[in-house]
């Protein structure tokens, strides 16, 4: 029975199908006639994907119930012993098989002709989140959507062209409306803040809208009286209204409650006073090692946490608060890591703050938590002229008072430079001096370290041709010893040296030398007496190996060394000092356990990771707890050193 | 005779026009029913409701004591229907239409279909679009008969037929059906056509049956032609 109906549909629509097949054949064959004219070849493939398939789908879909209307065969068809859902399904199946046949022809041509494969492989438009597929899913999806819309509407009107035209309008209108909503303030600027989620939401909305059309069409066919066209349209509109509201609810619900894997984000912002602070897509939270509790510090969705700094139990951070797609307010906030004292220090309405065209490039909070230093730069000028504006230094007190603009022109005697880059590195002399990194040029790259005296408002160069040993982890000794770990360029391109720079005296002590990119992954112990880092060195057989090294300030030399891994990746974020300041935790190369290394870096114990942690990253030690992020699920795990137990805490 | 079909309180409205109103009818198996009514009285509407083409606004239909819902399709395997307007799929051939229908009816009789084509002078290779209205009616009849239905609804089937075919249809086909035990509901506004074939007469007027009586009894009671009886009944209703 099903076959008989499908066959009937094929026979009825054979003319339309073979006409479309002929057009497709011509469009596919045309590149042979246009050898060498690659632009035209590309446009022909674009024409197939952008115009041919959508219109072929519309024409096929609009012909769905055309025969019944044209030949008045409704009564005949409905009086056969056929369920109406079966009629709907077989008609749609027949059209879908024709649609798929056209795509199969295109795919066969794509497989046979490398030129088509290359062009379609480069055409992804909205489908960047499906990298590497090469298949133009967007064209397939959009044309399938139009097929469903046109087929659904073909039930309502005897003229095929009318159904086609209305399907084209509605088939573009609904996805456009969904996309506009996703881009708008109401939609939380999702398209800009979470492109992967926006793309998924658009897909879900389109699937649900297609189902709404199909559902309304099926319901109309099953329930409606075809001798009364107006009643039939009313049934369709009523059903579609209900289904489209459900589709909207489903779309919004999926956007609100079902996270996209790429959307989840968990970033360590820093630790202080036994609390570790993390930034997530839902807000900031701190983990208190003493109470073992997670406390949400902020819960704001339409915000990007741009930059942060933590010291003395206080966290300063920037947020990008979107007012509209083109208008985002940059604000600077301060709060205690226990969640108290949350305060906006600088917002749009703050008098004498930087102009709207300036953007915050970085911020740092002083070791005592009382002063916040901010770097801003005019970004509008960069967009217009490619000229990079000179950055400005600002300082503000922790209570929001004393906002002061400071000049960094001494760093740029020749005015703004191309590809300029500046960043905070450290605080020196008990928070009275800021160490700033400056990149002068790209080719050759030239770096220098500068000291800005907050009292004297003067800047002076500290060191040429050097960078901090790490920009992510604070390279400065945690105790007020004004010692900064730096890496300096060596005359040989392939090697680097690491040195300790005494910020008070300018004295420099070379402590290690290795191949690029080492030495790296610097960690100071809690007392600031010893420092661990990795050095890349060749092993006796000439293969690269990563040697964990411990340098002691008191001894004035490296006191322990051990080759831990041959993987740069596993050496990158894999160590932390234990609370005793003598042992080191190191993530094993296979990511299944943490090794406890004694003062001599020999194995003193091990902590097995739960099987559920797939991609461990970290670790971070806060109080008597070890924190580890699982990158595969963006979840946070803690291990109690006292109770020897793992638990997932976020 | 057992009851085949029972229609209870059936109603149907088109806009403000109430075509059927509390319509009740019981049909016994193996009998030939003649449904008389003026144009627009609801004969086609009743046939379409029974065949599940359009929904009723109210009431119920029971086939062999089992209620039929709008959307049910299995009972239609035992129903034959020759619509008033013979619309088919015009691009099909006569043979194609028969083959198409053969898949849906378990009791499909190929021999009967072939012999009816011959009887009605229908060329199996002809495209339906090339057939006249009368030929299409014959084709509809051939399809309905080949399905070997328990219950056959004929909705004004003779209005497009030529005289010899009409004679053949009225005299032989209906007689054959009656002899084979098929229940027939013959809806028409051509009163005289029922004269020789019906066993029970139904007259539809104002959305209701105003007469549901054995034909012989009606004839005996009124002592007049069927046409006169019909006119009198409708005028008096």
Explain what the structure shows.
The complex is a heterodimer of chains A (650) and B (237). Chain A has 650 residues and is α+β, with helices and mostly antiparallel strands. Chain A contains 13 helices and 32 strands. In chain A, α2 (38-62) crosses α8 (160-183) and α5 packs antiparallel against α7. Chain A is elongated, with a radius of gyration of 32 Å. In chain A, the strands form eight sheets. A four-stranded antiparallel β-sheet of chain A has the order 1-2-3-4, with no helix packed on it. Chain A has a four-stranded antiparallel β-sheet with strand order 5-6-7-8, with no helix packed on it. In chain A, a hairpin with a 5-residue loop joins β27 (593-597) and β28. The model of chain A is unreliable at 126-131 (pLDDT under 50). Chain B has 237 residues and is of the alpha/beta class. In chain B, 43% of the residues are buried. Chain A binds chain B through residues 1, 3-4, 8, 11-12, 67, 71-76, 78-84, 86, 222-223, 225-228, and chain B through 14-15, 48, 51-55, 70-71, 73-77, 79, 81, 83, 85, 87-92, 96, 99-101, 103-105.
Strand and helix layout:
The complex is a heterodimer of chains A (650) and B (237).
Chain A: H1 2-33, H2 38-62, H3 66-70, H4 74-78, H5 84-112, H6 114-122, H7 137-153, H8 160-183, H9 190-193, H10 195-223, H11 229-257, E1 266-272, E2 275-280, E3 283-288, E4 293-296, E5 303-311, E6 314-322, E7 328-336, E8 343-346, E9 358-365, E10 371-378, H12 379-385, E11 392-397, E12 404-406, E13 421-428, E14 433-441, E15 446-453, E16 458-464, E17 466-468, E18 483-489, E19 495-502, E20 508-515, E21 520-524, E22 530-538, E23 544-552, E24 557-565, H13 568-572, E25 575-577, E26 584-587, E27 593-597, E28 603-608, E29 616-622, E30 625-630, E31 635-640, E32 645-648
Chain B: E1 3-14, E2 17-28, E3 32-37, H1 43-50, E4 58-63, E5 66-68, E6 79-82, H2 94-102, H3 110-119, H4 133-146, E7 151-155, H5 163-179, E8 183-188, E9 200-205, E10 208-214, H6 215-222, H7 226-236
Parallel strand pairs in B: 3-8, 3-9, 6-7, 7-8
Antiparallel strand pairs in B: 1-2, 1-4, 4-5, 9-10
